[in-house]
Inverse folding.
């Protein structure tokens, strides 16, 4: 992955001065212990930082504004230790612009039955303090994540960990820069979109750069740089071709694209086989190896997928089991009640993070584009649970569509297929999921991820203020159609 910041999350505890200094001292002490234990758990991907107890409107507002401008802070976790009157939070919450998790927990796990008295009740009243706090969010219509349970429970910690990744996806989204080294493929609708809307909603900066500028970078690559890049390929992949000249050209292109991206502080790029003026091959191996390093990529000018890939790779950072550009290519329809499968692939550019085993470098004709035969990685995808996600512009709003899928080892060998591919069974079935996906207007390009979850993408979409559609094993087609219709009306009213 492209190495992202060492983000931190602030832990802010809510209380008030009604219960006296001794109680407030306990509140602070308890919060510090929770923070310490959460950090020691090893479950959280980012550090939690204790902040002084929030008891006044002024301090709440000041703390949230400090969190806004602190570049290291990716979000705030709040906990109402006692009853904190929620009117005190209105201004601070209205001015806060980062992700917030409401941890509805309490210091003690069980009720101390033998000793419980009114002092204990006054000091440990998260059960109703958290409801007061939750109410004001709902009334203000502010997005937040709610996690309920004891803070020492690993399931609770895992929920916090998962949300932290979503929060980093939200924060990183606002810096995503994608270089369009090509326009959208001619006449294609679903890969088009409103780039201004994308920058408003997501913060994605998508700007055009001439292919000729990239060609100048390609021409500047030295033989020594190509040697070093090829040597790196040999450590990661199996060379399964005699056409070393083609591999060397991809190495040259990779060195050039990487420098081009670095010079422009970009997180990803798009290109198209229709616009390779001055280039000998469509980047294949080059693009695959770059996406394996964490760069976003979209083919045929699909900048939405390039940005989404970059964001999802950021969310999966450190634990990624595979996150890649994908395209629905061809089907295996089952007969006599057998499962049907989707064979996903692309002309060339699927990321090797989803590969089972060591990918092979091969050189084959492309069949379209009229350029030289490009070197590419050929592999089969991993088996396992995953999601496929796509983002479409509905005209006036963006819609994120996610389908839960079960990836399988391809059910038959395909010795003549010269591309990277993944075979999966969409949930609940190819036939039903395919109908739902098409009714929702879903694209042929998607991002497949074995790590990022539908829940994370739903929370991310909610934070971004866009529509989210989820196709699951429990799909009910009638309800799904009603949901799309109602959702359409709702988003047009917004
Ligand atoms: Mn495509």
């Amino acid at each position: 992955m492209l190495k992202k910041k060492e983000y931190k999350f602030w832990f802010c505890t809510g209380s008030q001065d009604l219960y006296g200094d001794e109680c407030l001292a306990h509140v602070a002490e308890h919060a510090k212990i929770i923070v310490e234990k959460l950090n020691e758990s090893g479950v959280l991907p980012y550090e939690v930082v204790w902040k002084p107890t929030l008891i006044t409107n002024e301090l709440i507002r000041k703390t949230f504004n400090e969190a806004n401008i602190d570049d290291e802070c990716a979000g705030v976790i709040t906990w109402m230790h006692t009853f904190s009157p929620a009117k005190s939070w209105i201004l601070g919450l209205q001015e806060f612009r980062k992700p917030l998790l409401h941890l509805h927990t309490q210091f003690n796990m069980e009720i101390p039955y033998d000793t419980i008295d009114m002092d204990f009740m006054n000091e440990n009243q998260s059960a109703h303090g958290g409801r007061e706090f939750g109410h004001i969010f709902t009334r203000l219509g502010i997005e937040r994540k709610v996690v309920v349970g004891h803070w020492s429970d690993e399931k609770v910690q895992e929920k916090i960990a998962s949300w932290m990744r979503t929060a980093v996806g939200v924060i990183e989204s606002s810096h995503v820069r994608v270089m369009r080294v090509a326009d959208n493929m001619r006449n294609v609708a679903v890969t088009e979109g409103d780039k201004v809307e994308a920058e408003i909603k997501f913060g994605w900066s998508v700007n055009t750069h001439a292919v000729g500028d990239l060609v100048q970078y390609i021409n500047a690559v030295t033989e020594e740089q190509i040697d070093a890049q090829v040597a790196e390929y040999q450590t990661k992949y199996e060379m399964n071709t005699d056409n070393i000249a083609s591999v060397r050209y991809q190495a040259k292109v990779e060195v050039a694209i990487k420098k081009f991206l670095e010079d422009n502080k970009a997180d990803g790029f798009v290109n198209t086989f229709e616009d390779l003026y001055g280039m000998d091959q469509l980047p294949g191996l080059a693009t695959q190896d770059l996406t394996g390093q964490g760069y976003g990529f979209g083919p045929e000018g699909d900048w939405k997928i390039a940005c989404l890939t970059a964001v999802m790779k950021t969310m999966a950072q450190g634990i990624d089991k595979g996150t890649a550009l994908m395209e629905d290519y061809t089907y295996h329809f089952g007969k006599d009640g057998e499962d049907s499968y989707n064979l996903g692939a692309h002309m060339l550019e699927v990321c090797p993070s989803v590969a089972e085993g060591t990918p092979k470098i091969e050189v084959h004709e492309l069949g379209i584009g009229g350029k030289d035969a490009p070197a590419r990685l050929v592999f089969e995808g991993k088996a396992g649970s995953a999601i496929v996600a796509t983002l479409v512009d509905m005209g006036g709003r963006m819609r994120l569509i996610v389908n839960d899928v079960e990836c399988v080892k391809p059910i038959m060998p395909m010795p003549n297929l010269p591309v990277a591919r993944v075979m999966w069974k969409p949930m609940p079935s190819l036939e039903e999921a395919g109908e739902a996906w098409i009714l929702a207007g879903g694209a042929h390009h998607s991002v497949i991820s074995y790590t990022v979850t539908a829940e994370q993408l739903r929370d991310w979409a909610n934070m971004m203020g866009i529509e989210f559609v989820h196709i699951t094993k429990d799909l009910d087609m009638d309800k799904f159609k009603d949901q799309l219709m109602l959702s359409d009306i709702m988003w047009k009213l917004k």
Remarks:
- Residues 21-40 form the longest helix (20 residues).
- The longest strand covers residues 398-408.
- The pocket of manganese (II) ion is lined by residues 299-300, 327, 346, 445 (CB under 6 Å).
